[in-house]
Amino acid sequence: MKIDPKLKIRTVVGEAVVLLPGKDAKDMTKVLALNPTSQFLWENLSGKEFTIDDAVTLLVDNYDVSKEQATEDVEKWIAQLREIAVIE
Q1: Contact status, residue 39 vs residue 7, Cβ threshold 8 Å
Q2: Residue 18, Cβ neighbours under 10 Å: how many?
Q3: What residues have CB less than 8 Å from 67, skipping those under 6 apart?
Q4: How distant, in Å, are the alpha carbons of 29, 32, 37 from that of 87?
Q5: I want to staple 16 with a disulfide (CB 3.0 to 4.6 A). Which of 6, 34, 40, 52 is the partner?
Q6: Whose CA is closest to 58, among 79, 40, 35?
Q7: Which alpha helices (DSSP H) does the chain contain, by range?
Q8: What is the torsion angle, in degrees rounded to the nearest 10, for the CA atoms of residue 25, residue 81, residue 85 and residue 43?
Q9: Looking at residue 25, what is its pLDDT?
């Protein structure tokens, strides 16, 4: 899987966000707010193909989290990104 390469993190009022363009003129742009962990994953996985295991390894290697908890969190993160069509 891959994060849509057209989408970039922006800082708005000190918050990391991604602007998600609408599909047509009636559909307004949406804003995806990223917490620090989500921003970390986005920055480290953006621009390349990755697997769930790649994201889990990033969390386990950089945060005080078990592999089981990291796997659960990554699966939820990916499901949310798929739901809003951010992952290709």
Answers
A1: no
A2: 22
A3: 56, 60
A4: 17, 13, 17
A5: 34
A6: 40
A7: 36-45, 52-62, 67-83
A8: 80
A9: 54
Which tens digits make up the pLDDT trace of 4-40?
Answer: 999 999 999 999 999 987 665 565 678 899 999 999 9
Evaluate whether 31 touches 43 at the Cβ level (below 8 Å): no
CA dist 8 and 21 (Å) reads 12
Q: Give the chain's radius of gyration (CA, Å).
A: 14
3-state secondary structure of 70: helix
Looking at residue 25, the DSSP 8-state letter turns out to be T
pLDDT digits (tens, 9 = 90+) for 31-78: 899 999 999 999 999 999 999 999 999 999 999 999 999 999 999 999
Burial class, 60, CB count within 10 angstroms (exposed 0-12 / middle 13-18 / buried 19+) = middle
